[in-house]
TrEMBL record:
Zn(2+) binds at H264, H328. Pathway: Cofactor biosynthesis; thiamine diphosphate biosynthesis. GO terms for biological process: thiamine biosynthetic process; thiamine diphosphate biosynthetic process. It comes from Halobacterium litoreum. Its EC number is 4.1.99.17. It comes from the Archaea. This is Phosphomethylpyrimidine synthase. Binds 1 [4Fe-4S] cluster per subunit. The cluster is coordinated with 3 cysteines and an exchangeable S-adenosyl-L-methionine. One of its GO terms (molecular function) is phosphomethylpyrimidine synthase activity. It holds the Pfam family ThiC_Rad_SAM. [4Fe-4S] cluster binds at C408, C411, C416. The gene is thiC.
Length: 475
């Protein structure tokens, strides 16, 4: 049976493409062309019956992934299903099951059975749990795990095939070495065996499995920088070049592809990172972890990374992997998942608004109108996190009589600026025109409002006497 990519190339609009078009308010033919050209993916394993299809691509709303999964010390099937429910409840578009503890098959099968969103995995994690030593992993074991997970209905898999033996010395001298779990495991394996990365060497075999089940590649960035000090180094970009090569190979094999990206990147380099990936990987959807734009705020890394994520979304990132406040510190709990999801949905939506993606601003405008109308119920229901908006409002004004009050407790009834504004306007919502005799060009404000020396263009500004002066950076 053809994959979504093969169908698209054949000119067939699948049921999944129809559904995606409906969800995104786009023309089904546009969706088909985006998939056919590899510019978007519809991760939809044929065995994932509960899936409500979605699309990942820079022309569509920016998506957010949430990571869940147990470790060797925590959580079983019921706990993981609870995490899945929490992630989807707070708006996750996809969920990655990164379990490394017990009951891996039961957890994965339960997730696929219940999840309306695509499920992603990192198969090398399971391979590690099946051996005593990383060096004992064989290429056949990796292919067995990938085949089994594909048959279980996993929609996309992170495959770190771009970490080549030739790249490893490029990480010497890094401040934080190799921080990707998959990347560090493969580096250890290659150093132990003196051989090439088996995921690269057997990439054609993986393509065969993916094509059979219509699994989408998420080409992992195993050499991503783990600190600002390592951002944009030779190792990161050598791997990216290999990911470009693998993207084209997968397309030739009829398999959908997205590409993962860094990590930790200074704010002024985020746009450049997105543009470089788009160029090297011929527009394949870019899926970023953050990036964190500073390393100094453990405990707040959902914020440091959401800043980078918004900038990435604005410049064309297709999906953002959320980061929680526990990043670098511990396993997130349900409240951390909520905070991380909120931060990332804000980042994704801000990027969509700034990039002018169709319909993105409508949400903001609808909420602003409800706010100015003092329609508190509508404001809550439109809020990104309706429960939190209602909870915060009702902490001080809980009664039903306050649900159409023309104020809240922030400024109070007397100082509510929106109430004062409305009371000042006439019935048509207009201010009366007042004829004044103030000459703004000679007012003292003209002097006060001069821009600071040395940071502005050589635009003429009025001095206190009303004559023009021109200041330059040389002043
Ligand atoms: S009281 Fe202040 S914060 Fe509250 S609705 Fe009025 S202007 Fe907005």
């Amino acid at each position: 049976m053809p994959t979504q990519l093969q169908h698209a190339r054949d000119g067939t609009v699948t049921a999944e493409m129809e559904r995606v078009a409906e969800r995104e308010h786009r023309d089904p033919e546009f969706v088909r062309r985006q998939v056919a050209d590899g510019q978007a993916v519809i991760p939809a394993n044929r065995a994932h019956d509960a899936l409500d299809p979605m699309i990942i691509g820079r022309e569509f709303a920016t998506k957010v992934n949430a990571n869940i999964g147990n470790s060797d010390t925590t959580s079983g099937v019921e706990d993981e299903l609870e995490k899945l429910h929490t992630a989807v409840h707070y708006g996750a578009d996809t969920v990655m099951d990164l379990s490394t503890g017990d009951d891996l098959d039961a957890i994965r099968e339960a997730n696929v059975e219940r999840s309306p969103v695509p499920i992603g995995t990192v198969p090398i994690y399971e391979a590690v749990t099946r051996v005593d030593d990383v060096a004992d992993i064989t290429p056949e074991l990796l292919l067995d795990v990938i085949e089994k997970q594909a048959a279980q209905g996993v929609d996309y898999m992170t495959i770190h095939a771009g970490v080549l033996a030739e790249h490893l010395p490029l990480t010497d001298g890094r401040t934080t070495g190799i921080v990707s779990r998959g990347g560090s495991i493969l580096a250890q394996w290659m150093e132990a065996h003196g051989e090439q990365n088996p995921l690269y060497a057997r990439f054609a075999d993986i393509c065969d499995i993916f094509r059979e089940h219509d699994v989408t590649f998420s080409l992992g960035d195993g050499l991503r920088p783990g600190s600002l000090a390592d951002a944009g180094d030779a190792a990161q970009f050598a791997e990216l070049d290999t990911l470009g090569e693998l993207t084209r190979t997968a397309w030739d094999e009829g398999v959908q592809v997205m590409v993962e990206g860094p990590g930790h990147v200074p704010l002024d380099e985020v746009a450049e990172n997105v543009e470089r990936q788009q160029e090297v990987c011929d527009g394949a959807p870019f899926y970023l972890l953050g990036p964190l734009v500073t390393d100094v705020a453990p405990g707040y890394d959902h914020i440091t990374s959401a800043i980078g994520a918004a900038e990435a979304a604005r410049h064309g990132a297709a999906m953002l992997c959320y980061v929680t406040p526990k990043e670098h510190l511990g396993l997130p709990d349900a409240e951390d998942v909520r905070d991380g999801m909120a931060a990332y949905r804000i980042a994704a939506h801000s990027g969509d608004v700034a990039a002018g993606r169709p319909g993105a601003r409508d949400w903001d405008d609808a909420l602003s109108e409800a706010r100015y109308d003092f329609d508190w119920e509508r404001q809550f229901s439109l809020a990104l996190d309706p429960e939190r908006a209602r909870e915060f409002h009702d902490q001080t004004l809980p009664g039903d009589n306050y649900k159409d009050a023309r104020f809240c407790s922030m400024c109070g009834v007397e100082f509510c600026s929106m109430r004062i504004d409305q009371d000042t306007r006439d019935a048509d919502g207009e201010m009366e025109t007042i004829e004044g005799d103030t000459d703004l060009s000679t007012s003292p404000a003209a002097e006060v409002n001069r821009p600071p020396t040395g940071t502005h263009d050589a635009e003429p500004v009025a001095d206190a006497a009303g004559t023009d002066t021109a200041e330059t950076d040389d002043d």
